[in-house]
Q: What sequence folds into this?
């Protein structure tokens, strides 16, 4: 079928206009809270609003953003979240890929039992492990440190399962041929198997970074020093100081959303592919 025929079929689709209208309506519903947040952040602190429409009307001011930048540690929170997210993602990719390669392509006793153990790890709620995890990190004197934030988060059973499923799709003939040529397990992993797993690694990396960036409960329990606050912890702490106000807390949330929105616009295709990939066997 030619491109012209495809265009003609699209034009003949009687539901095309309702579909587009519905898509635009749903998009507006999802964008409305973000748009409203930015308009509220531009309102003067002393400006009352009696109707919803007044939130979108002048006057506007950027004084709120100046006050937030000068009166809070939002850039420090973003930096801490970025550092923790990057290191957590890197370590998770290294450990999960090595574990998945061993379970998929190396022969040893209790291999299947060990894989079942990883699957069982998905059935344990994260909240059920908070207390023993807190005691372990406390006994290791890692509370209120970057290490205490990062190390508990690099255990990712889902990543091991996804990568093992992907590695299982690599033909054993390729592995055996490389071994006959004298390729060691490390070279086999690094030069042959790992390059083929880039889509799976991207999916796990994106999901791990997003999970680390949005993680609130563990950083809230493990961190005491304000200098180590991540963004999900710093924003509620700042908002609690303005419990009777809503413009400044809304401004700090709008400012904290900017890096995430920019990152999504840049890596939109990778994020969508990564999330959809987790439901596909490699």
A:
């Amino acid at each position: 079928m030619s491109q012209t025929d495809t265009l003609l079929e699209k034009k003949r689709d009687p539901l095309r206009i309702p579909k587009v209208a519905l898509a635009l309506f749903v998009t507006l519903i999802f964008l409305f809270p973000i748009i409203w947040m930015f308009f509220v952040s531009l309102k003067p602190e002393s400006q009352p609003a009696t109707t919803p429409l007044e939130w979108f009307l002048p006057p506007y001011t950027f004084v709120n953003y100046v006050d937030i930048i000068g009166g809070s540690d939002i850039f420090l929170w973003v930096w801490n979240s970025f550092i923790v997210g990057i290191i957590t993602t890197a370590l998770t990719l290294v450990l999960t890929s090595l574990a998945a390669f061993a379970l998929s392509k190396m022969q040893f006793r209790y291999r299947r039992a060990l894989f079942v153990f990883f699957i069982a790890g998905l059935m344990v709620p994260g909240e059920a492990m908070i207390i023993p995890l807190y005691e372990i990190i406390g006994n290791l004197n890692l509370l209120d440190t970057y290490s205490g934030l990062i190390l508990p988060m690099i255990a990712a059973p889902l990543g091991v399962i996804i990568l093992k499923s992907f590695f299982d799709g690599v033909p054993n003939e390729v592995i055996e041929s490389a071994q006959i040529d004298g390729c060691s397990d490390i070279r086999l992993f690094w030069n042959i198997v790992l390059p083929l797993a880039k889509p799976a690694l991207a999916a796990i990396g994106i999901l791990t970074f997003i999970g680390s960036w949005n993680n609130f409960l563990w950083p809230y329990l493990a961190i005491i020093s304000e200098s180590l606050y991540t963004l999900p912890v710093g924003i509620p702490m700042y908002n609690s100081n303005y419990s009777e106000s809503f413009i400044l807390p809304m401004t700090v949330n709008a400012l904290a959303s900017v890096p995430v929105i920019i990152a999504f616009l840049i890596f939109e295709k990778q994020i969508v592919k990564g999330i959809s990939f987790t439901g596909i066997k490699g």
